[in-house]
Amino acid sequence: MSEVSVRLSVVTPLYNEEANVADLVGELRGALDPTGWRYEIICVDDGSEDGTVSAVVDARGDDGRVRLLRLDAHRGQSAAMHAGIMAARGEVIVTIDGDLQNDPADIPMLVAQLAEADLVCGWRVRRRDRWSKRVGSRIGNGFRRLMLRDRVHDTGCTLKAFRREVRRALIPFKAMHRFIPALVGRAGCRVIEVPVNHRPRRHGRSKYGLARRAWEGLGDVRGMRWWLRRRVFYEVECFPPTRASRDGPPPPDEASASSGAEDG
Fold it and tell me: Could you give the number of structural domains in the chain?
């Protein structure tokens, strides 16, 4: 499958999601096959310690649309997501969690919204998480909006769709996935947010603790605010080449005549 022939790339970072992989790949196929798009599913294993890799291989079977990337070690969700995004061959890129809490059925709707924007962020209006996680997320999102003014309610929602060109605004660092709207918006791209479905986790458990996320999140927001203020934006205007460089060296006879005139 050549790069230019792929309409959509779906990137899903996976860390110890062995029990969810088969259902995830099956639901993605079920959501995307009716669209008629040429698509690929990029599963990025973030150094899993269970059978996640084997589960992806089994779910893939003979389907060349399912690709597997493996990081050299457990590097975190942002690293896995960035690796998948950079490897994507589609005109449009969608990111989705590997724990099945994001609903693949929402993907066609998000892609359709790209008619109005460069990045479409999912907004989990009715989150299906425990109360402490919801409260912590609301506080963190509020603090981030106050500091960065990205105007996004739920930047932690992995379900996003964006144009391929948008990835040039992304830089790989820990917690990048929570600042994609800020990075993309400050690059001059159009960012919108739409409600999406959210489901309870079926298997496994969350990889983040509330206290750890809150403490690290404070430092991340401060660092991002500094970086956005220091970031340099510029445009380059390319002028036409000079006549000499455009036409190349003068013919031999013209060069001789010119040389003789100077000698005289």
Answer: 1
